[in-house]
Write a structure and sequence with these properties.
Number of strands: 5
Structural class: alpha+beta
Low-confidence stretches: 106-111
Strand content: 15-25%
CATH architecture of the largest domain: Roll
Helix content: 40-55%
Number of domains: 2
Shape: elongated
Largest sheet: 5 strands, antiparallel
Length: 191
């Protein structure tokens, strides 16, 4: 029971941290844009409701333009190299990062995620468990992440003989939903 509570709290923290960081960044960014808009105060009277509405529209428009430009910049070779460097040198050292990245990549259904986080059914002595194949080793073993239920954010890594692995034709989202639902609806996923 204590382990469940601890894992649930950790899962909640890992879920909330990116959201809180995003909220803080957006609040700071909007404050910065309002500061930039101060010189426009002479042109737009901010003491009226219409002036405030115009200023807010300009701030949102500027925010959209900056996000668009950042999106263009992020697809460039230099930014991709920087992102990969940060991920490989910093983020991958965080214990839960590979798991979270695998699930998040699964949400965006990238080809890389489907290659690196494959839902599988692992056969044990007289039972089977829904897991995620991470990679195959050269000695006919498969690296498998065994998620906990109902929180897939904590689990175990096992090295299983390839003959005990059955790949499932389901998405990462379906697998995670099944784990969080304590197996409810498995007849539709595991065939």
């Amino acid at each position: 029971m204590i382990k469940y509570i601890k894992n649930t709290i950790i899962g909640g923290v890992l879920f909330l941290i990116p959201i809180m960081l995003l909220v803080i960044i957006v609040i700071k960014f909007i404050s910065f844009l309002i500061l930039l808009a101060k010189p426009l105060e002479k042109l737009i009277p901010l003491d009226s409701i219409g002036g405030i509405a115009v200023a807010n529209i300009l701030v949102v428009l500027l925010l959209v333009i900056i996000c668009f430009l950042a999106g263009i910049l992020s697809t460039g070779k230099i930014m991709t190299k920087i992102q990969n460097g940060i991920e490989n040198k910093i983020l991958k050292k965080l214990p839960a990062y590979p798991i979270i990245k695998g699930f998040m990549d699964g949400i965006s259904t990238t080809k890389k995620a489907s290659e690196n986080f494959i839902p599988v059914l692992v056969s044990f002595d007289d039972s089977e468990q829904l897991c995620f194949e991470i990679e195959e080793t050269s000695n006919n073993k498969v690296v498998v992440y065994v998620p906990g239920a109902p929180s897939p954010w904590s689990g175990t890594v096992l090295y299983i003989d390839k003959s005990r692995i059955k790949r499932l034709n389901i998405s990462i989202n379906e697998a995670v939903g099944n784990i969080q639902g304590l197996g409810l609806g498995s007849q539709n996923l595991i065939k």
